[in-house]
Amino acid sequence: MASEEELFANIDALLEEEPQLPPPAERARLREAAGITQARLAQALKSTVQTVKNYENGRSEPKSPRLEAYQRLLKGWAAKYPAHAAPAVPAPVAAPQPEVPEAFTGPAAPAAAKTQTAAPVQAPAAQAAPERPATSRRPVAKKAVKPATDPRFPHGPLAVLDGDGSAYGIDGIVLDCPATTVPELVEWTLKESGLGAAKLNRYGKDSDPLIVLTATAAVKLGLPERLEGHEQRRTLRLPEDHPVVKQVAKAKWQLTQRGFGPWARIYRKAQGRERQCVQLAILSWDALDERSWPGVSEMEPADVARVLGVYATRVITPRGSTAVSGLELMTALRSPTKAVQDPATGNWVSGYNAGSLGTEPMDPAPPEATPEHPVVVNSGWKGGFLNEEAYQWVRSVDLLTDEECTLPFAVGLDLNTAFLAAAARLTVGLSAPDHFHGPKFSPKIPGSWLVDLSHIELDPRLPSPFTPDGTRPTGPAWYQTHTVAYAQELGYDVHPIEAYLRRETGAYLDPWHDRLKNAYVDTLADLGVTRDLDDRQFLAAMEQHKQADPALAAVLTAIKATVKGGVGKLRERPQGRQYKEGETWPALQRPTWRPDIRAAVISKARVNMHRKLNNMAKMTGLFPLAVLSDCVVYPSPGESPLDFLPYAASGKPQPGGFRLGPTPGLAKLEGVQSMLWAVDLMEKGFNPARHIKGGDAVLDEGE
Question: How far apart are CA 97 and CA 374, in angstroms?
Fold first, then answer.
């Protein structure tokens, strides 16, 4: 028998060994259970996203001291989220509050509690989904299919159906679709096509299959080739007495409140865990807006399938316009509910998923609302509104110097997905707003602040960072937290008069940002614009990228439109002639109707732009001619940004100013490049901002 000394020596040897980590799959599970993205974990570990991915797929292991830090984090998560236990149902009261910052002083209404539903749901089971039933009408693949990652959806997320019955999917697959009516098409899609996509979040739902109809396919199914009417094309619908609508109803299928339009959803109530829903998109009804999907409607069906397939794989299966898809992506990545176990009954119920916006809509603070919102109309609010919008500013001709007037070129720099960059690591409110009088300002609390910034004097050759039109404020006004924090950053005292603040906060948009950023960067790389290019190579690649592959160029445009449209949808305003002032409108029923989050994104983007403008002025003495949204115009001695951007002696770009590159937030040549100009043209009404193709003054709220 071993002696006590030998046993102790063996134990000491074990204690001196390097700490052991759980298996790679468990590491990923723990991170997802905590609601942390790979990007946030990489930031905490002072590492890269790819390194974290390697940790979670077993390709590499961390070294000391990162090893000990990573192990400590995983141990903490393991204690909170055990592998075979479900968290208890939280009581239907407000979430536990963090330490109250100094700003939360004075009288305030009680924090609103997050409501939770208690509808019984099936307990999550770790078993494979049942195979689809085999039938005599199982589609025949005319081309070999690449192995699918999810066996439930072997043919990908979508198909483009042509008039001859050929359904074109991703990776060149072509299926035979025998359907001659819309109900038959729905049945074929759900039972035989093998189309669909797995959920993007462990608590989310699988994406419903998408069938895109060409004009000939629409006619074959009994639909009109085009919808005609005096309304905007996207608002047109088939009348309720149309034969196809009657066919759908007779077959016991339902249409959503949007009716049978360019993006029609046909469904039945879910049976157990199986959803029964198919999304249709009709090309000849202008389902794919030319601004967001340039040239796609005119492509061959196989090319349309390729464009939409890449978008579906990298972003989300389209559910409507790019704006609708952008909003749907937020919910898909931050599911409002998850299954939790009631400790009293042992039943599984639907509970609030921490970090999400929940299932119920939330009224905004009066200054965050729009003038027609019931909160404003019913209360008689006269206290003003947030005006956090993108820049639309042109420098006065009187402020141009003689030297600037002699420069022969005006060059436009368009920031890559500036609003997406602003969404990164953005803390937003998750609970209802509380009203405070005379609070102390804190840059860590998201909300709306009534404060007077009119005393702040800045260089008039730059736009004011506090107003969209760049003019100096004239008195107290409502500002989002980032705008007020920037005033502090510039060295000025701020003394808020009132504020509407939120106690519960979180980085709600983090996974949304990460997915769209990766989609944007990966698509640019496929077009030959990669991160390893120097500035000259980058500009040359950007000049050619749209011609390199029109299909992928269309995907890139759609990704950018998804960002702007998704942010705009957070404050969708009423549409239609039937709307009457003071009434609610459908968008208000969504938990994602959050004008305060939209204001936070735009405020941060505008502040980021001004910070770069200010740094450029300090480093180079250059001042912009105009700024429109995410595009800035500078006078230049040459036709390239390389002629005026600041570079160190080593040839590397100076930090703080504008830099070229494919990453969101960096700049590219755009718009008024190489345009000759002179002061007399400006005096005759020339406005540089009108010539900028790169930006939209207001994020689209209506798609």
Answer: 29
Helix, strand, coil abundance in the chain, percent, nearest 5: 35, 15, 50
Please say whether the beta carbons of 603 and 479 come within 8 A: yes
CB neighbour list of residue 412: distance below 8 Å, 6 or more residues apart: 631, 632, 633, 669, 670, 671, 672, 673, 688, 691, 692, 694
Neighbours of 421 (CB within 10 A): 22
Ranges of beta strands (E only) in 409-563 are 409-415, 428-429, 434-437, 447-452, 476-480, 498-501, 505-506
Q: What is the mean pLDDT of the chain?
A: 83
Closest CA to 361 of 572, 600, 206: 572
Average pLDDT rounded to a whole number, residues 449-458: 96
406 or 611, which is more confident: 611
More confident position, 120 or 492:
492
Give the span between the Cα atoms of 366 and 383, in whole angstroms: 8
Which residues share a beta bridge with 120? 349
Q: Is the pLDDT of residue 36 over 90?
A: no
**Whether 51 contacts 67, CB under 8 Å:** no
Q: Name, in order, each residue with C-beta under 8 angstroms of 284's C-beta and a sequence gap of 6 or more.
A: 213, 214, 215, 218, 225, 226, 297
- Helices then strands, counting H and E runs in the chain, come out as 19, 20
Q: Are strands 263-271 and 254-255 parallel, antiparallel or unpaired?
A: antiparallel
More confident residue, 23 or 446: 446
Both tokens of 555, joined, read: 């995907």
294 versus 125: the higher-pLDDT residue is 294
Provide φ and ψ at 584, rounded to 5°: -80, 165
| Collapsed DSSP state (helix, strand, coil) of residue 9 | helix
CA distance 366 to 374: 9
Helices (H), 21-63: 24-33, 38-44, 49-57
**Alpha carbons 661 and 667: distance in angstroms, whole number:** 6
**What is the percent of the chain with per-residue pLDDT over 90, rounded to a whole number?**
55
Residues 324, 321: Cα–Cα separation, whole Å: 5
Phi-psi region of 165 (alpha: psi -120 to 50; beta: other; left: phi over 0): left
Between residues 676 and 370, which one has the greater pLDDT? 370
Question: How many CB atoms are closer than 10 A to CB 102?
Answer: 10
Return the number of other C-beta atoms located less than 10 Å from residue 228's C-beta. Answer: 9
CA distance 589 to 523: 34
Q: Indicate the pTM of the whole model.
A: 0.78
Short-list 479, 484, 496, 426, CA closest to 103: 496
Query: Which of 18 and 394 is assigned the larger pLDDT?
Result: 394
Rounded CA-CA distance 382/405 in Å is 45
Q: Which pLDDT tens digit goes with each residue over 163-213?
A: 999 999 999 999 999 999 999 999 999 999 999 999 999 999 999 999 999
Phi and psi (nearest 5°) for 197?
A: -145, 145
Count other Cβ atoms within 10 Å, centred on residue 224.
15
Which residue do the tokens 């995410």 mark? 630
Q: How far apart are CA 175 and CA 161, in angstroms?
A: 9
Concatenated DSSP letters for 506-550?
E-TTHHHHHHHHHHHHHHHHHTT--TT--HHHHHHHHHHHHHH-H
Reported as a single tens digit per residue, the pLDDT across 331-359 is 999 999 988 888 888 888 889 999 999 99
The predicted pLDDT at position 120 comes to 37
Instruction: Report strand pairing: 392-394 vs 409-415.
Output: unpaired
Q: Indicate whether 612 pLDDT > 80.
A: yes
